[in-house]
Amino acid sequence: MNDEAIIRVEHVRKELAIKNGGEEIVSVILPDISFDIKRGDFAAITGPSGSGKTTLLYLMGGLDRPTSGSVFLDGQEISALTEEELAEMRNRKLGFVYQFHFLLPEFNALENVMMPMLARGRFSMSEARTRAAELLSRLGLSDKLHNKPNQLSGGQQQRVAIARALANNPGVLLADEPTGNLDSKSAETIYRLFSELNSESGQTIVVVTHDEHFAAETKRILHILDGQLSIDRTLR
Amino acid sequence: MRINYHLATIAFRQLQNRKRQTFLTLLGISVGVMVLITAVSLMDGLLQSFIQKIVDIAPHVIVSGERVTPPVPDQLIVSGNGNRVDFIKNVSRERQDVIKNYPRVESLIRNDSLVELVTPLVSMDVIGMFGTISQPVQLFGIVPSTEDEIEKFSRSMVSGSFDALGRTPDGIILGTSVAKDFTARVGDRMRIVSQSGDIYSVRVVGIFRTGINDIDDNCYVNMRLGQIIGGFSPDEASDLYIRVNDLPKDGTVARTIERETNYRAITWEQKAASVVALFKMISGIVYFLVFFVIMVAGFGVANILITNVLEKARDIAILKSLGFKRGEITIIYMAQGLIVALVGAAIGCVLGFILIEIMSSIPMASSSQSFVSSNHLMMGKNPMYFVLASLFAVLVSLVAAVGPSRNAARVNPVEILRGER
Fold first, then answer.
1. pLDDT digit string (tens) for B191-219?
2. Count of domains in chain B?
3. Residue B418 forms contact with A (CB below 8 Å)
4. Which domain holds residue B316?
């Protein structure tokens, strides 16, 4: 495992303009934050609600742009990319998992996982199908390929969402409270899954979580307090 | 361009998920397309049957006695105070322009290979008298055999026979309105008073009804008798009726005649111009109203798309985070508009076809039954109605889809994904 930074956050500042009646209030979410995520890292971003951890994750995923400072992914400054280039990059290099599964309700598990592969046309329909089926089997859903999201349990839905995030073999998997909406047993399965993905395939994972228990499973904890990095602790 | 099946599939499944609203939108478009097709068919059918009627029973070109270029004065004198005096020789009494030496003009016209038939006639205003009734009528002197080839009187006879006119030198054929006014029947004798005051006795040999009031107000006698009553010389005619064998060329024939004979020749299009223009205006109003029906269908499309975009904001956000580009999101919703429009138009075409068939089989009492063989509504039948109506529906739907699709493309994933928390 090399020490190369796959994500570098450099002096990132994020302000949000909130309209309150007639006047605009600018609130600073992240005053100035810098850190690296190394290839093969499994990092948890923790912190109280409103500390800016989700904003940070979105900035790292190119879904949002910093007010100032830079975010590098694979050595490329993503804050300088156009919206089209960002879409391309998100598709190729990043996988997202959210608190809610956000699966497309009209499509079955297999089709949901195929979607990112078809989005940029890098896979043919049959390649995408084979790969999606493999991913879902790996996540223990081989018997649920043709179920629609509403025919799956919360834990199963989240596993489909993880399979979808992994579809294009991304450099980084970004997860926003992936267990936040699950019972403890399903949450447990998801922790284990993340750990396995990291230890077995060297998948770089950054996960935002409230869950101390989950955070303890990771290799590194980045604790955010009022938009500042207050603790950066490597666990193992 | 690569066909994006997955985009089309997303579009299609989202519509499938909203069956009731999709159905209502489809219904709106279908009805719009159906009404448009039927209205076009009806208006076109009316115009076509009207033109067919004219082509069938009206002369294609009418040559009148009017000169294209007025005669040049024989002498022109300008007096000292600026007044001008034209002298024209052989001035007789004031009378209508006539075609002089018409047999020669007729044979000249007949030389044109486009001309199928020429028949001369004289026309005049006279007073008809029967019993105690007397009233003005329009009287025509005709050559029965050739006249019938053009105006098809023998098809419209309600009593007597048209052929009898040719065999009866003092025979007269009455239009049904005239016959009714005089209460005259076949075999009756009536009198005609000419403009010069001479009285002629004629025998009714037939009564016809064309359904066209202008013609049913007329009376017809033999050419020779007409010339005598109207004071024409034997070689004078007031008009020549011409039938051409290639209708679109009637304008060419008319111009050739004017050039060669200097007599004014007008085509049926010129004569019927005001009626055709009226038809076109009515059609315009009908299409304008139907246009609104389709517009309403367009609102339906906009409505379902706006609802879909609002309701699917979360899915749009997720698609964007998966790497779908703005353009692709736009395509998904434009495709929904297109799918609804195409399916709606297809259903509308089938419904329109059925409605046209039903309407054209409804019996219709028509004032012109006697010479139009069908007594049903004349519906136009042309594949272009379907093509144009469908294209129009697709166009309106796509225009309606533009706004919602652009809104969909503008969805900001961060706002939506955050908002779920």
1. 999 988 999 999 999 999 887 778 888 99
2. 2
3. yes
4. 2-56+275-417
